[in-house]
Design brief:
34% strand, 186 residues, alpha+beta, 9 strands, four-stranded antiparallel sheet, single chain
Length: 186
């Protein structure tokens, strides 16, 4: 049996050799690395999650609609998702149909209906503003494209602390409960 120093040197040489061969095989200057099948299936899976199935999407915790929520929303709760910034977006895809309108069920903060909250919805072809008190619905026209992006804007938000409802200092504007989309068959 070889002395320990010789075994350690052989092991080090073997490890370095394997590392060099792996680097040479994986790094090819001037060529792009192909996307592995696993990444393609992940992209397809995410595309499926962003596709509206049916004509209504709920934004409650655990619902499929939470995938449509972009920056500006807090983590959804059982009643819906709270808009925590002045501007937020909802994005989704529609397959085999033309989305021509959307109706949002919204609840102004605080959710007991005390003060009103000015809300504006914007799509690529329409803009609608309204004072929301309590729970109300607000509709907007869509352009029929398969990819939709709707911006939701609040004039101001209040924190539970400002209303003596708790110690939470985060501003809240409204809760988005659900969205119904009107569609025409392609």
């Amino acid at each position: 049996m070889a002395p320990p120093k010789v075994c350690a040197r052989r092991l080090t040489f073997l490890c370095i050799s394997v590392l060099i061969v792996a680097l040479i095989n994986n790094l090819r200057v001037g060529t792009e690395k192909p996307v592995p099948d696993a990444e393609e299936s992940t992209q397809e899976h995410l595309q499926r999650l962003l596709t509206l199935s049916g004509d209504t999407a709920s934004f409650a915790e655990g619902s499929a609609g939470v995938w449509f929520l972009q920056d500006g929303f807090r983590h959804p709760d059982p009643q819906g998702a709270i808009l925590s910034q002045a501007v937020a977006e909802v994005r989704f895809f529609v397959v085999h149909k033309e989305p021509v309108g959307a109706e949002f069920l919204l609840s102004a903060f605080p959710f007991d209906g005390s003060p009103s909250m000015r809300v504006t919805l914007r799509s690529s072809i329409d803009e609608v503003s309204s004072e929301i008190i309590g729970v109300e619905s607000l509709s907007i026209a869509l352009d029929g494209d398969v990819f939709q992006e709707i911006q939701i804007e609040c004039d101001a938000g209040l924190s539970p602390f400002e209303l003596d409802l708790g110690a939470d200092l985060r501003r809240q504007c409204l809760r988005i409960i659900e969205m119904s989309v009107s569609m025409e068959q392609l």
